[in-house]
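R.M. (postdoc): so does anyone remember the format we settled on? I'll just put the structure tokens first.
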């Protein structure tokens, strides 16, 4: 991300007569040590008749000395600064071992040099008392500085003082009030009393409006702001001068641009000088203006860009409606916690307490913002091999006709709260519910844990284990045993009511068991999942036939008002405990009620029809209202019905996944996505995750896009199989579509491999399948599935792991697999909702194009070009350019720069520099990681991924290939000329670190990378730069970046725009040795053998790789020939 601003500062004095001015000193030029890069500076003075000399004071600050030979009626100082507001991490510094903890002593020589900054100027009683109250116990120096900075910030109140000068510490402490310069001077004196060298800083403070309002504390100014400011710097051995702004209580960052840093504030005045006595009018102006903003994850588009994107969506909609496409789109965005980047539940594990808490918060918010009287339903989710328990699933369910399913959301219990309910409440609830349903409560059965099972399990425990105690480290089964034994095996766990809907009303029947009681299966799942159904009578005299597979291709009447019907029925409810109703049919499904985790849980039986489900839910709410009991609705899901809609919130490894409802219009789709991202943010869920080195990875969970229709029979993919062929062919022709939007892990073993990344014969077989699509006439629904099911898989035949997944198109498995839906699984989760919508718009526009005119072309055999050219940003952008041109030709005015945020996100800039008029930049490229062979691990057989190989792109402009060559670590880079004169590009593959198990374990690490531009005529390197995969100073990060700013600062620190190789060039292959590093720790050490007594730069040119001509593979250097 790059953001450049212009600071304009004007100070104007007007005098009532012509007066003489003494020589003036101006301290309004950024100091040489400013960490914020200053790209341009201008100082204009009036009157024009003056002399100006630039000087430096004893402390290294710039100052302009002005002399005015004539009298003047005005004096004006006009300053303009262009600054690059790169992200600066104020905590990114080292501290010498001797100064890691406070208190410490400066070394003798250093203390002598710091003498002016240790001088105590004020010794008042109030100041001494303030210092005395500070906690001076030994602690890390950073913690100590944060603490003192906060103390001053909290002790004083801020005010704007227009009077000249700085208050004494005594005045500031007496008033507990001061301006920024008063805060800063007090801080200087406090630090000196504490034995720390400190200096006063005057400079510019630039504060830019935040793109997104903060969830914690103030969000900063409403408008971009700059002004003169003052703060403090303290000298810590190893770290140097550290900026501390006690006015805000923060450390100084990129917005603090120092002008003068001095031991005393008297030497830091912005303007200093004298004039004759006169009447003076004083004017000043200080503004900051943004002049360049690269796309960033918090604001990917300018307002005018987004307006154009949004309006284009409606144009595409017009064509979709006009051409009777009936397209709907949904998706599966994923989110991560913004507070926890470290724990397993937000990295690799599917479940976790914090994840459940945030998912519940998000579900309740979605219920509020997306529905009118919707229902929150909790169910068992998928159960994957290797996971101890099935995953959970929360569904927000509502009616499309906007009539309520559940009126009072307060009666839906909050999963994050505990309620003071007892087993008696469960009994009362299920008894009342049965009467409201109009059935007898005499068939309600208490449920018990099976004592035989748990007594046997208790007997199996080791003799030194107390069966009544457990801790978090105990195995899940042992915890369960202890919990059950503690509760008591003779106590009722809950109640079960056999219930089903007959022909026109609810019915029940008696359940009888050989053992006399209902004993549950072992475990801690809801009792509705542990019922001993296999112990029920096998062949009753009469049993209702039920079919729980909905026919989604049938048509259904409009839904009625079931809440009013239930309320009416409840008024006529018999007050008798038992209704003398007898039913001849046997009921095999049951509703159960229990108190679990201090909440009253109602487990729903499987239900065949939506009308019946809505009646039952209305009855449960009526019961909850009468008894004033909040309930958790769980159990079997609501029936699939096109008259209802739902959003599912589920866990996935490292993320929370949200399955959003499909919508037919661009307006609905954009409203839903924009609302979802905001709801997630307010629930402290975000879309950003970072690697330890600062690289952006998205959430890691994907953002799958689904396309279909409101009714499966209307699906454009089933009605016209040529649409699926067109999408597959177009994506295969444009690898940029696969790799620009994908996650970090690509290739044949990824979650969504391209059709040409798996089996080599797949394209040949696909072309045969394409030929079998009828050119005209009605197409049977099953044909699309049968033609492509065995083509759209990964190399193991997994139909789910494919770039185009047709599992839900017309699967023979079940009705839920015959939804007419195509899932595009290669889309990674973009960090901003507007970026997600551009992805959606791209797919909508292409569907519209292919519906009008199918895209029928032969497939391209890319071969190794796929993982050579198209993993570099330059060639992906060229490919996207041709996609944009195709859409423009079809009448959809896409712009290539709309995809810039994706390029910045997928191929972040590492660094750029100018060398002898040539502009050089390096940025991230994609590297397909290899899945290694099976190895034994602690959890059994495992397959590791070798992520030690990385790739970057180097691009150079205004390059003369006749005279210069570019080398990386002494090897010539095979540059390829682009369409622009003088521009060349190449990829560089390198081994970044040494894992314990790798594809090539004997090949050493290549980093750090040293790039040189070598002048062949003068046989010297004329400049170069370094790229590191870890902190160049050896700093090892213990935690992941907390946000995009820290991540960006880590990336910036790993690039040096200097440090070329030294010596005269000799075309000779050096002998290189490398020490392998541990994971992300110490970089490889290199030794270049040179002739004794001479300084030589050796480089050699390797023959161009015929398979990967666009990429230099540094591993080739290690091949023994």
């Amino acid at each position: 991300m790059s953001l450049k601003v212009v600071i304009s500062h004007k100070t104007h004095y007007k005098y009532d007569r012509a007066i003489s001015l003494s020589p003036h000193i101006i301290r309004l030029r950024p100091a040489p040590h400013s960490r914020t890069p200053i790209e341009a500076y201008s100082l204009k003075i009036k009157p024009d008749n003056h002399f100006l000399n630039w000087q430096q004071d004893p402390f290294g600050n710039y100052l302009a000395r002005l002399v005015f030979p004539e009298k003047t009626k005005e004096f004006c100082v006009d300053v303009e600064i262009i600054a690059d507001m790169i992200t600066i991490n104020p905590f990114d510094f080292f501290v010498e071992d001797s100064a890691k903890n406070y208190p410490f002593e400066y070394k003798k020589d250093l203390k002598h040099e710091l003498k002016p900054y240790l001088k105590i100027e004020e010794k008042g009683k109030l100041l001494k008392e303030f210092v005395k109250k500070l906690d001076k116990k030994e602690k890390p120096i950073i913690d100590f500085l944060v603490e003192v900075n906060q103390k001053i910030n909290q002790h004083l109140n801020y005010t704007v003082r227009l009077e000249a000068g700085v208050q004494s510490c005594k005045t500031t402490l007496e008033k507990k009030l001061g301006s920024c310069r008063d805060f800063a001077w007090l801080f200087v004196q406090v630090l000196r009393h504490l034995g720390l060298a400190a200096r006063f800083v005057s400079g510019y403070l630039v504060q830019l409006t935040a793109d997104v309002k903060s969830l914690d504390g103030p969000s900063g100014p409403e408008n971009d702001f700059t002004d003169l400011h003052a703060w403090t710097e303290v000298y810590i051995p190893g770290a140097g001068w550290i900026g501390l702004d006690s006015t805000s209580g923060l450390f100084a960052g990129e917005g603090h641009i120092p002008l003068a840093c001095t031991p005393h504030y008297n030497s830091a005045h912005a303007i200093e000088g004298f004039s004759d006595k006169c009447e003076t009018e004083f004017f000043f102006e200080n503004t900051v203006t943004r002049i360049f903003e690269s796309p960033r994850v918090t604001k990917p588009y300018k307002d005018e860009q987004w307006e154009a994107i949004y309006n284009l969506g409606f144009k595409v909609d017009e064509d979709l409606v006009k051409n009777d496409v009936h397209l709907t789109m949904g998706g599966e965005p994923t989110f991560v916690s913004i507070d926890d980047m470290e724990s397993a539940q937000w990295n690799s594990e599917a479940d976790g307490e914090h994840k459940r808490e945030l998912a519940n918060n998000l579900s309740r918010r979605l219920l509020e913002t997306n529905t009118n009287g919707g229902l929150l339903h909790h169910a068992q989710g998928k159960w994957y091999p290797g996971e101890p328990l099935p995953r959970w699933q929360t569904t927000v369910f509502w009616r499309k006709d906007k009539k309520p399913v559940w009126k009072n959301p307060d009666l839906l219990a909050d999963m994050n709260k505990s309620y003071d309910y007892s087993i008696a409440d469960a009994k009362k609830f299920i008894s009342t519910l049965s009467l409201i349903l109009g059935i007898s409560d005499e068939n309600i059965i208490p449920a018990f844990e099976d004592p035989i099972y748990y007594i046997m399990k208790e007997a199996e425990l080791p003799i030194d284990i107390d069966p009544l105690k457990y801790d978090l480290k105990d195995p899940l089964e042992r915890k369960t045993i202890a919990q059950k034994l503690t509760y008591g095996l003779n106590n009722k766990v809950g109640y079960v009511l056999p219930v089903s809907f007959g022909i026109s009303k609810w019915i029940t029947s008696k359940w009888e068991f050989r053992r006399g009681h209902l004993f549950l299966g072992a475990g801690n799942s809801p009792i509705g999942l542990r019922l001993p159904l296999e112990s029920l009578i096998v062949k009753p005299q009469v049993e209702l036939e039920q079919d729980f597979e909905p026919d989604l291709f049938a048509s259904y009447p409009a839904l009625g008002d079931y809440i009013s019907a239930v309320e009416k029925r409840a008024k006529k409810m018999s007050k008798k405990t038992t209704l003398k109703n007898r039913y001849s049919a046997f009921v095999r499904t049951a509703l159960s009620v229990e108190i679990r985790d201090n909440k009253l849980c109602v487990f729903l039986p499987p239900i065949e029809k939506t009308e019946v489900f809505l009646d039952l839910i209305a009855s449960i709410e009526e019961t909850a209202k009468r008894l004033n009991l909040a309930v958790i609705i769980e159990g079997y899901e609501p029936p699939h019905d096109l008259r209802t809609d739902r959003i599912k919130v589920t866990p996935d490894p490292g993320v929370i996944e949200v399955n959003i409802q499909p919508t037919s219009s661009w307006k609905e789709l954009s409203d839903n996505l924009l609302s979802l991202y905001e709801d997630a943010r307010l629930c402290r869920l975000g879309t950003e995750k970072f690697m330890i080195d600062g690289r952006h990875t998205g959430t890691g969970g994907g953002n799958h896009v689904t396309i279909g229709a409101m009714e499966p029979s209307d699906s454009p993919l089933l009605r016209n199989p040529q649409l699926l062929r067109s999408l597959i062919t177009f994506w295969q022709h444009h690898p940029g579509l696969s790799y620009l939007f994908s996650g970090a892990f690509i290739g044949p073993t990824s979650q969504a491999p391209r059709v040409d990344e798996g089996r080599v014969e797949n394209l040949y077989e696909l072309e045969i399948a394409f030929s079998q699509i009828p050119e005209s006439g009605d197409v049977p629904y099953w044909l699309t599935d049968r033609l492509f099911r065995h083509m759209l898989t990964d190399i193991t035949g997994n139909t789910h792991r494919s770039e185009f997944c047709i599992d839900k198109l017309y699967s023979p498995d079940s009705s839920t697999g015959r939804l007419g839906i195509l899932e595009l699984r290669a889309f990674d989760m973009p960090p901003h909702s507007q970026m997600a919508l551009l992805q959606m718009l791209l797919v909508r526009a292409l569907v519209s194009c292919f519906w009008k005119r199918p895209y029928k072309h032969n497939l391209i055999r890319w071969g190794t070009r796929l993982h050579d050219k198209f993993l570099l940003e330059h060639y992906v952008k060229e490919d996207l350019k041709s996609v944009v041109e195709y859409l423009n030709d079809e009448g959809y005015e896409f712009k290539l720069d709309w995809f810039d945020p994706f390029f910045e996100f997928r191929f972040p800039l590492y660094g750029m520099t100018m060398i002898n008029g040539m502009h050089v930049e390096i940025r991230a490229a994609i590297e397909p990681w290899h899945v290694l062979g099976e190895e034994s691990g602690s959890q059994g057989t495992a397959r590791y991924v070798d992520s030690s190989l990385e790739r970057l792109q180097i691009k150079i402009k205004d390059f003369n290939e006749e005279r210069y060559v570019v080398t990386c670590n002494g090897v010539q880079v095979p540059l390829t000329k682009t369409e622009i004169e003088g521009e060349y590009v190449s990829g560089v593959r390198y081994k970044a670190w040494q894992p314990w198990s790798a594809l090539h374990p004997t090949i050493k690490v290549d980093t750090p990378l040293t790039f040189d531009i070598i002048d062949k005529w003068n046989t010297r390197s004329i400049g170069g730069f370094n790229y590191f995969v870890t902190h160049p100073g050896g700093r090892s990060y213990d935690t992941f970046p907390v946000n995009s700013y820290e991540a960006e600062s880590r990336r910036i620190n790993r690039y040096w725009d200097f440090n070329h190789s030294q010596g005269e060039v000799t075309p000779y292959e050096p002998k290189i040795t490398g020490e392998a590093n541990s994971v992300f720790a110490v970089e490889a050490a290199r030794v270049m053998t040179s002739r004794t007594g001479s300084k030589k730069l050796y480089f050699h040119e390797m023959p161009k790789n015929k398979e990967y001509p666009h990429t230099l593979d540094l591993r080739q250097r290690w091949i023994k020939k």
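R.M.: ...and that's the designed sequence above, right after the tokens. Also worth knowing: The first helix runs from residue 108 to 113. DSSP finds 23 helices and 52 strands in the chain.
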